[in-house]
Write a structure and sequence with these properties.
Elements (H helix, E strand, L loop, with lengths): L5 E4 L10 H4 L8 E4 L9 H11 L1 H10 L10 H7 L14 H43 L3 H27 L15
Parallel strand pairs: 1-2
Helix pairs in contact: 2-3, 5-6
């Protein structure tokens, strides 16, 4: 699949320098380009910074054609970035969307897909070992009080073994994704 760029042309937005903090974490060359309509316009430091992020130095050469104030413009991006850390800047709270929860549950589904058989096999082995030990204890110790406890422990191990076996048989029927497609990690 060929790479493509989503080009957002914002006609009424002037890219003021005061909005630098809103764009300082803008991804570098991630196939998203914020731009103005083609024509002669006044460039702000924010716009120069965004174009430089996307096109690197090639973008600055292109801006010379469109910005009538490009040669007179000097931008100190370091000091602009430091102003973002001041207490005067209002922090924007990150919104959590439903799709974030969906992908989190997908990761949990994949984790459970691989963890369930491991835990089931481990539980089967340990409960089988406990059953063998308890059977020997039941046959060797004839004390009535211990016999009741050993029988209850024996029943508990049997139930745990059945539960582990059910989960071991259940794991091949788990669909890790909603459409039931193959796992591809």
């Amino acid at each position: 699949m060929d790479n493509f760029t989503i080009k957002l042309i914002l006609e009424n937005y002037e890219y003021p320098d005061k909005d630098f903090c809103l764009f300082r974490a803008f991804p570098q060359n991630r196939l998203l380009l914020l731009t103005k309509p083609i024509g002669s316009f006044e460039c702000t430091c924010l716009y120069i910074w965004l174009i430089k992020l996307y096109f690197y130095d090639f973008g600055l050469k292109q801006l010379e054609k469109f910005c009538f104030n490009f040669e007179n413009k000097s931008c100190d991006f370091v000091s602009m970035g430091k102003r973002c850390h001041s207490e005067n800047f209002i922090r924007i709270k990150k919104n959590n969307y439903h799709i974030d929860a969906y992908y989190g549950s997908e990761i949990l589904s994949v984790f459970m897909f691989y963890l369930t058989p491991v835990v089931s096999i481990f539980g089967s082995i340990t409960n089988t070992a406990c059953l063998i030990i308890l059977k020997k204890l039941l046959l060797s110790d004839k004390s009535q009080n211990k016999q009741i406890i050993f029988k209850l422990m024996f029943i508990n191990c049997c139930l745990n073994l059945i539960f582990a076996f059910i989960y071991l048989c259940h794991s091949p029927s788990i669909c890790a994704f909603q459409n039931g497609s193959d796992l591809k990690i």
